[in-house]
Amino acid sequence: MNTPNKLTLARMIATPIFMATMLIEFPYHYLVSLILFAAASLTDMIDGKMARKYNLVTDFGKFLDPLADKMLTTSAYLGFMYLYSGNLGKQMTAIVFIVLFREFMVSSLRLVTAKSGLVVAANIWGKLKTVSQMVGLVTALFFCTIIKDFGLIQSAQACYVIDVIIMVLFWISAVLCVISGLIYLNECKSYINSSK
């Protein structure tokens, strides 16, 4: 197994650890989860660049890399769905639904096209979706760290503004999920045979 694929596997292994640190309360647990998520997100950038630079791109890597991204980002969204309540909780539920619907659809399309020998790599819209998710989630975890771990912001108004910023970032990602999902569906429509 080459180094980029090892980094991808490391991101997958880090996901449940990140999820635990996000949800289990202990001193500075949001800071720990922020560091873990940011480090795992960086491996996504590093493994792709390394694979292309050193000609280490493999079908296994093309399949595993987006799967590792899905695991990491989805676990973080589920964590925020657990943390938010009221109207924000409803918005998080809608966002998580969109994300999961898109990911299940794209994963299914990948399986269908794989039967024909085609491995569908992430396109620019899929990459933009992933980057927007990671930026939004890092921002949200950063705010959780400064508000809940360090108590640096206590004003209800400031916290409301921060929640609005987080939701805007999450909704941008959700829109990109829809766009990239529709593009994948269009690219793979010739491989979908309803008679089989």
Helix count equals 6
The low-pLDDT segments are: none
Name the helix and strand elements from N-terminus to C-terminus, one letter apiece: HHHHHH
Helix content: over 70%
Q: How many beta-strand segments?
A: 0
- Report strand %: under 5%
Q: CATH top level?
A: Mainly Alpha
What is the CATH T-level topology? Four Helix Bundle (Hemerythrin (Met), subunit A)
Summed up, the domain count is 1
**Biggest sheet details:** none
Radius of gyration: 18 Å
| Tertiary shape | globular
> Which oligomeric state applies?
single chain
Q: Main attributes?
A:
Four Helix Bundle (Hemerythrin (Met), subunit A); 196 residues; mainly alpha; globular
Task: Give structural notes.
This protein is an all-alpha fold. The protein is globular, with a radius of gyration of 18 Å. It has one domain: Up-down Bundle (Four Helix Bundle (Hemerythrin (Met), subunit A)). It contains six helices and no strands. The chain has helices spanning 3-23, 29-53, 59-83, 86-115, 124-149, 156-188.
Helix-strand layout with pairing:
Blueprint lengths: L2 H21 L5 H25 L5 H25 L2 H30 L8 H26 L6 H33 L8
Helix pairs in contact: 1-2, 1-3, 2-5, 3-4, 3-5, 4-6, 5-6
Concise summary:
The protein has a single domain (3-190), classed as Four Helix Bundle (Hemerythrin (Met), subunit A), CATH 1.20.120.
